Amino acid sequence: MRRSITGFSNPTVKALRALRDKKHRRRERRFLAEGLRLLTEARESGILPEQLVMASGRDPHDLLDALESDVLAAGGEVIETSEEVLAKITGKDNPQTVAGVFAEFDTSLQQVDRDCAPIWLVAQALRDPGNLGTLLRTGDAVGAGGLILIDDCADPFSVEAVRASMGAIFTQRVAQAGWDDFIAWLRSGTGQLVAASLRDALPYRGAPYAAPCFILVGNESRGLPEAYERACDLRVTMPMRGRADSLNAAVAGAVLAYEVLASIEG
Amino acid sequence: MRRSITGFSNPTVKALRALRDKKHRRRERRFLAEGLRLLTEARESGILPEQLVMASGRDPHDLLDALESDVLAAGGEVIETSEEVLAKITGKDNPQTVAGVFAEFDTSLQQVDRDCAPIWLVAQALRDPGNLGTLLRTGDAVGAGGLILIDDCADPFSVEAVRASMGAIFTQRVAQAGWDDFIAWLRSGTGQLVAASLRDALPYRGAPYAAPCFILVGNESRGLPEAYERACDLRVTMPMRGRADSLNAAVAGAVLAYEVLASIEG
Fold first, then answer.
1. Residues near A133 by Cβ (< 8 Å), separated by ≥ 6?
2. d(Cα A90, Cα A96) in Å, to the nearest integer?
């Protein structure tokens, strides 16, 4: 179905705009992704938006045409609107010329097939949606299977996390679980849990990593709870040559993930 | 000097608050840093704020006392105010209990002593202040000398960059220059320029890094201009196992910096 929207006060505009708000997003179980690049990433991963919102007056583009016809063929809705209305929906002054509304994915641990990838990223109480999206993007780059979010993390479906993921929200598995459920699930199969830590740790280079390797990073200000570190199979530490004793959480995860990748590919 | 401020409309409050705005900050050549941790980092690096703003009703703290007496001894100003006013100055709902106003540093290339460190980070047209601050933080961790900002980058003295640096703004050198000036300066001494690149590149692991090694990362969406990559002594590439062809700029810089660190420490 195809339709046009012109007014700012149109109920569809309000509903789309509300998806930037977590409470509303939770209720609707749908999320917003912006930009042709992200939407094409989704399409090529076999995921189409339920609604595609496009600014009129945009430049023609083959990938946009492909997206439009796929969405229509799948029974989705294509909405044409003004740049100004699109800006209002996305909350950006210079909006991309296209945005999509997607159904949230199943984020239960049960849908995670640990054997499909040698690396998994795990974040505990990660509060910053930019860090969360960056971990997804890094996971894609290192060939990880996905990102498991432990305890109270930022929302992976927030506009900021989706944007920072650069499309990896569509290619990486995302799971959410409490610590106890995660550990029970992890120990029900194979899997090595590795923490970046300062306690009782081996140098991160040359440590005995084994696939499937679950790389655990902690909260931005508090790091990992000690009990969680103790539950890990391996604690590794990165050099800290300066005054600080920690790295940004997304950076620590990336440095470690690239080391694990090099190690298991030998 | 010590004084109290109670009203929101006090001219000092307005002046401090205005430091969150780049234009104003440029004119004043002063910047804001928040939180006892950052301010203590500064103090221990021998840098004191011209003004120290503290919320009344805060918990006593030895480090805060030390800061206060050092600022007063150095002829600076200590301002007591309410939590509400401090929140207004810092623009945060839950402000830290202390903030400081610092004079901007000299960011000319001439103050950079390249031989004082084996690694330098270089960012070109980096637009995100969070990425900029994260690169500073990573630089501190790997024992880099500092961060050189090429072309039109985010402001290293913005509240966001200072916050993301976690204090490294006070421990790392920061320089700003156009590309031509940078290259002329670089080639006037020793120094290897290394780019993360997909063009004509060696695998990043085991590449022949040499100190002082200048690690160059590019703009978040466009990467490095081809001419800049060609001017590098070494182009290296990191594995990309997924659909994406790039990493977050701060992540790419960190993965590469840790590899260079391991390489030159042999």
1. A156, A160, A161, A162, A163, A164, A165, A166, A168, A169
2. 9
State both tokens at B201: 């590149």
Cβ(B152)–Cβ(B179) below 8 Å: no
Q: What is the DSSP code string of B23-41?
A: HHHHHHTEEEEESHHHHHH
**At residue B16, what are phi and psi to the nearest 5 degrees?**
-65, -45
Which residues of A, range 139-178, sit inside 8 Å of B by Cβ? 139-143, 164, 166-168, 171
Dihedral of the alpha carbons of A208, A198, A131, B248, in degrees to the nearest 10? -60
- Looking only at the bridges linking them, the beta strands covering A213-217 and B30-34 are unpaired
For A38-68, how does the pLDDT look when each residue is reduced to its tens digit (9 = 90+)?
999 999 999 999 999 998 877 888 999 999 9
Pairwise CB contact (< 8 Å): A247 & B138: yes
Residues in CB range of B107: below 8 A, 6 or more apart: B149, B156, B174, B175, B176
Tell me which chain A residue has its CA closest to the CA of residue B244: A141
The two structure tokens encoding residue B223: 């990467």
Comparing CA positions, the residue from B149, B163, B135 lying closest to residue B20 is B163
> Which of A101, A172, A186 is closest to A138 using CA atoms?
A172
**Which domains, and CATH codes, for chain B?**
2-103 (3.30.1330.30), 109-265 (3.40.1280.10)
Chain segment A204-233, per-residue pLDDT in tens: 999 999 999 999 999 998 999 999 999 999
A33 confidence band (pLDDT: 50, 70, 90): very high
